[in-house]
């Protein structure tokens, strides 16, 4: 190629790898010669030489379609993608299946660093990634030595939003995320919940709800709780229908996400018109219905995860502030933004 273009091999190399160091006319001549010879740079060869793939791997512990179906997961991935565009990086999805091959599947990915979606404490992928020399960041936890964590204080946010909803003296029920990786639907009571849920987000929010309910002088042990398998509106609707026989007319439905709250509202708005709803994520749809919710800027969390995976030494706060909103404005008496 260099001979056909009439340049040195180094100039031909610079035309592709450091184009700013080559005159425009010379670079055009090299590229014409490459086209005539059918040459193009080999990405695998470049990666072998540089030791870098220029790819961020997103490890997604849900069914991969969930990344596109769930609006909050999509927001998170949009934040990761924004940073990839800004930093000229590619984005590789690494789905897991919950089987013994997950760890090997993740570690064999040709990526320079990992961004992990929230998973359970007993997920073997965590230990595998923590022991890998490539940088890794997880959204929401669980915290693990060797993996940076970008998150909110879910406990305090859950305590605040539930306390706000209980001011009117309503009788609470809870619609919870999965308790463990088995993802079993169930309706139970606070007394029958395990003492600890291995999903850190689920565990922190349940603890916050419990604290608020007990501070309101109510019984957590007799509080009805529906556990869903997935964060979807149909799951929220199914949970609400299962809870319906236990609801009082003034029920307060405390849902761990706006998607679940929206599903519950769809299922109950005719049979329980006086019920109130709490959610999480402050989505436009929830605001339109006046659902009180916790802000959860997952797009910004995605950005911070990607930035930390690309530059582990980058200074920055990994704890995201939160507020409480109702409708399109902050709820009366809601706390100011909270962070570390």
Fold blueprint:
Elements: H1 2-5, H2 9-17, H3 24-37, H4 43-50, E1 55-60, H5 66-69, H6 71-86, E2 90-95, H7 102-107, E3 113-116, H8 124-130, E4 136-139, E5 148-150, H9 154-165, E6 171-176, E7 186-189, H10 200-215, E8 224-227, H11 233-243, E9 251-255, H12 258-268, E10 276-278, H13 284-288, E11 293-294, H14 298-310, E12 324-326, E13 329-330
Parallel strand pairs: 1-2, 1-3, 3-4, 4-5, 6-8, 6-9, 9-10
Antiparallel strand pairs: 7-8, 11-12, 12-13
Query: Count the helices. How many?
Result: 14
Give the SSE order as H and E letters: HHHHEHHEHEHEEHEEHEHEHEHEHEE
The overall pLDDT, averaged over residues, is 89
User: Which CATH first-tier class of the largest domain would you pick?
Assistant: Alpha Beta
CATH topology of the largest domain: Rossmann fold
How many separate structural domains? 3
Please state the CA-atom Rg, rounded to the nearest Å: 25 Å
Describe the structure.
It is a single chain. The chain is of the alpha/beta class. It has 3 domains: 2-41; 55-152 and 298-322, Rossmann fold (3-Layer(aba) Sandwich); 154-295, Rossmann fold (3-Layer(aba) Sandwich), CATH 3.40.50. It has helices at 2-5, 9-17, 24-37, 43-50, 66-69, 71-86, 102-107, 124-130, 154-165, 200-215, 233-243, 258-268, 284-288, 298-310, and strands spanning 55-60, 90-95, 113-116, 136-139, 148-150, 171-176, 186-189, 224-227, 251-255, 276-278, 293-294, 324-326, 329-330. The strands form 3 sheets. It has a 5-stranded parallel β-sheet. It has a 5-stranded mixed β-sheet with strand order 7-8-6-9-10, sandwiched between helices. It has a 3-stranded antiparallel β-sheet with strand order 11-12-13, with helices on one face. Helix 6 runs parallel beside helix 14 and helix 9 (154-165) packs parallel to helix 10 (200-215). The longest helix is centred in the first third of the chain and has 16 residues, at 71-86. Residues 329-336 have low confidence and may be disordered.
